[in-house]
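Friendly challenge for the regulars: who can give me the structure tokens for this chain first? No prize, just bragging rights.
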Amino acid sequence: MKRTVLTGLVSALALVASGAVAEIKIAHVYGKTGPLEAYAKQSHDGLMMGLEYATGGTMEIDGEKIVVIEKDTQMKPDNGKALLAEAYGDDEVDIAVGPVSSGVALAMLPVAEEYEKILIVEPAVADSITGSNWNRYIFRTGRNSSQDAVANAIALAGPDVKIATLAQDYAFGRDGVAAFKEALEGTGTEVVTEEYVPTDTTDFTAAAERIFNAMKDVDGKKKLFVIWAGGGNPMSKIQSMDPSRFGIEMATGGNILAALSSYKQFPGMEGATYYFYENPKNEINDWLVKTHQERFGTPPDFFTAGGMAAGLAVVEAIKKAGGTDTDDLIAAMEGMEWDTPKGKMMFRAEDHQALQSMYHFKIKVEDGVDWAIPELVRELKIEDLPIPIRNGK
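First reply, four minutes later:
Bragging rights claimed.
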């Protein structure tokens, strides 16, 4: 024991003598290239801005320099798994953040457990990440499928409402529909039919026709609720098939600004969103909007806010824990509250899911604005959103 202490002391003195600065290493393991690369860029820009804001621009915590190592999963689960192992093992990172895809995230979760290191999931959404596949090293700043589902159920439900769903056939889509159906229980709203299609689908004719046939003879206020990530633009393509002839209205949650341009076809459409830059009113969001506009020439987007929330959480956790020891970080982060562009977030102790506000919107179209505006109807705060715990605890 004395030899170990002496060796550590000599190493520390050598570090000081050499003038080297201790580092806090963070790996951002995300789909930098691939079908969701627009989401990925936003997430990374937001992460870096969150670290910057939380450290007052120094990019240091208690004199230790923050180093961010980027690793590109290319949206492939096996890549995500291998790159996270590389980050924890070879790069000796203290914390990892990412990825974009739920499928990639599910492959990465066991790696965090194997290496006993923190993985902050941002922005992958599937419930199972903090549900059936969760372990104690997983924290998520991004919203989960249940938060989307409960918020959209509040926005869309009613005693005479009949709903069809269209979603991508993988964890994000199936978890999203399952959570949405659960959230609608007791509201008098009926889900009449569900359609799942491959993630790279571009022709929605067959799925839409099946939905129309299932809904055409149904009485009540009829909606087609779409859960979709990435390209393909099912909303516009189905709208071109005139669902209104069957009395069907389109409905969906929020999205990035590029996707919101297609929402201009749906003035008055309601739903719930994770973030739109005009909705939150707080000091951090004001800084984010102003700084992002100055640096990039656009307002911050959906996943920029999420990345920033993750960066802010990293700094808050390390400060609260007094370092980067994993067990100390877990103790500090369970129940931790911190401020973000969306206002207060809190890591629920039972499953490490970040509880947070969502925003009920109604689409407004304005001349001269490239995207539809999800105008705020109501902020749905943490206490308004009964989010189930799905990890068995």
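The chain is about 40% helix and 20% strand. The domain at 22-143+281-356 is CATH 3.40.50.2300 (Rossmann fold). Your move, everyone else.
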